Sequence to fold (332 residues):
Amino acid sequence: MRSIVLLALSLAHAGLVSGFTPRAPISPLAQRTPPSTTKLNLGVVITGGSNGVGYAYADEFLSLGHSVVICDVADTEPPVKALKAKHPGGEIYGTRCDVSNAEDVSALGAFAKEKLGTIHHWINNAGVNGGRRALMDVPISQVELVVKVNLLGVLLCTKQAMAVMAEQEGVEGHIFNTVGSGVKGGGTPGYACYGATKRGLPQLTDSLRKEIDEGVEGYEARKMKGSIKVHSLSPGMVFTKLLLEDSTPSLRKFPFGVLAAQPEEVAQDLVPKILAAKESGTSIEFLGTDKILKKFFERFVLQKKSEYIDDDGNVIKFPGEQYNEDGVRALY
Fold:
């Protein structure tokens, strides 16, 4: 038991549970009845919102009565259509955007401002892992892609979000940078590029927080009509393509089968925390140490089996659901 606890703590410390994003079968959580009213309609931008946890975030924000813009390199028409069907009175808009392209990001900012009027929350969720293999075997094109999307993309989107939020008179804007495996250091074998990009995001978030609050030595403080808060967001392991692609039966049995969650479950946990964030620099996570220890206790002490991975490391496919070759469940 002691070795299990130590392993759980080491996983949490290394950040190995902070950011892969996969998906799987529908859980009862997805069936709940959304609230009919909300105190304030907020404008939310979600990058990488066509699938996975980004789509689930959009679904959850809409269920709470907020207005959402999603963007993706993939076609956003199908997810927008699905979300409109699920939330007939909701405001959901989509646009194509390569977050590593400055012109695309600028156009995203203009599109979101036009559709939402005011942007209260901007979630930098778009990310790629580049495939699971040793760095020496990763093509240069994949190295460039991972760094461009995960790091340059976050920088460009954050800069754009700040430019919009700074001009919003009397509005408090919040930017959330999604961290992942490798964020706290430690090795991420097979995902060296991904881990390196995620490791840099806390530094970015902390630097921006200090620039906004304290300014930059030797330069006049910038005057802004609105206020800006910057935070870290960790969805943990989520059953999506980012997690399941190139995975092995052994990895699917552990740690995925023990620690990974469905996109809907993650969104329903994190969105209220996102909305509640006030102080700049807040770190919001789905899979904290307490939850890790609980899951370890259930699996290794109570011998509770995974709902989503069988004893041979295969994804359990639920009747009526659609899955791709990696076992990733379609959300719409």
Summary: The longest helix spans residues 140-166.
